[in-house]
Write a structure and sequence with these properties.
- The chain is mainly alpha-helical.
- It has helices at about 5-15, 25-40, 55-65, 70-90, 115-130, 140-155, 155-160, 190-205, 220-235, 245-255, 260-270, 275, 280-295; strands at about 170, 175-180, 185-190.
- It has a 3-stranded antiparallel β-sheet, with no helix packed on it.
- The N and C termini lie far apart (about 90 Å).
């Protein structure tokens, strides 16, 4: 019979080899198992297979008492559920003790977005900044093309960094993108972004291989792209911290603000579920309400009704 440590190790190996989980996911799963086992050890832990629903109800209550974020709690219990599903199918456990455990609902925080004037200010920043010493002359053109492409397509940073020259079809105004789970989708590219890409490619003489390169002509990393965005953000008047994902949020919300169909936005973003995309309808509705409250003369109770003449 395997020990508890051997069971958790074999589970992680199963997730790595048979489920092809990323190292980040495996690290999260390992941390979740360790955090739970640490708590159960203090409560007279009798082994993973001996745990009951009450053990995990107690652990859930402990997590909530510690004011751990709901998203973290749900992540931990997602890992535990996967672990027990594995024990049931591979190690003869009769039933998962947490299969029917009710978790706190996920907090739905509305994503922060940039308004259109802020987007324009950010997109113009690369061509207005001073060129760093030893930087190639084409670097501002590259950075401008990256920012234009983020806002034009709503790509994830990993998707943008992985783009290759041949993925962009200039005559058709589209790009083939490899998204999550190895699913390919086609996204349209706006004319401004396409022009920015062509200027960059011509100046940097990028004709094959990775689309976005560093000064050593190797593929630009996601970390370098994030650092680049942060550098230009400091040169603007934008008061919020902006990440590549906030540009993705802005892309989706601005589309919906201007009448785009929700399912079309889902396809453009590469979301597997429509419910993931629906968060942007809440953002759009919230912005509409704020505009109404600010602009309508009778939006507030204390507003004075106009008198009949």
């Amino acid at each position: 019979m395997l020990s508890d440590d051997q069971l958790s190790d074999s589970f992680l190996q199963f997730m790595r080899v048979e489920k092809s989980c990323s190292e980040r996911t495996l690290r999260n799963y390992s941390q979740a198992l360790n955090a739970c086992k640490s708590y159960l050890d203090d409560s007279g832990f009798a082994g993973w297979k001996a745990c009951t629903n009450e053990h995990f109800r107690s652990y859930l209550y402990h997590c909530m008492q510690q004011e751990i974020a709901r998203s973290t709690i749900r992540l931990r219990f997602s890992a535990l559920r996967s672990f027990y599903k594995y024990l049931v199918h591979r190690h003869g456990l009769e039933k998962s003790p947490i299969a029917e455990l009710q978790l706190p609902k996920q907090e739905r925080k509305l994503p922060t977005i940039l308004n259109q004037s802020q987007i324009v200010e950010l997109l113009e920043a690369p061509m207005q900044a001073e060129l760093p010493k030893q930087a190639p002359d084409w670097m501002p053109l590259r950075d401008a093309a990256i920012l234009e492409l983020f806002y034009s397509t709503g790509l994830r940073i990993s998707e943008l960094a992985a783009l290759r020259v041949e993925a962009v079809l200039y005559d058709e105004g589209i790009s083939r993108v490899m998204g999550k789970g190895g699913k390919e989708r086609v996204v349209p590219i706006g004319s401004y972004a396409m022009q920015a890409l062509q200027r960059y490619r011509q100046a940097a003489r990028v004709h094959e291989g990775p689309l976005f390169i560093n000064k050593s002509r190797r593929a630009l990393s996601t970390r370098s792209i994030s650092s680049m965005l942060h550098k230009y953000l400091k040169q603007t008047s934008i008061p919020i911290h902006v990440t590549p994902h906030k540009l993705r949020h802005s892309f989706a919300t601005h589309l919906l603000d201007n009448g785009a169909d929700l399912r079309a936005v889902q396809e453009l973003l590469g979301h597997a579920s429509l419910s993931t995309t629906q968060i942007y309808t809440h953002v759009s509705t919230t912005r509409m309400k704020e505009t109404y409250q600010h602009a309508h003369p009778l939006a507030h109770n204390k507003a004075k009704k106009p008198q009949d003449s």
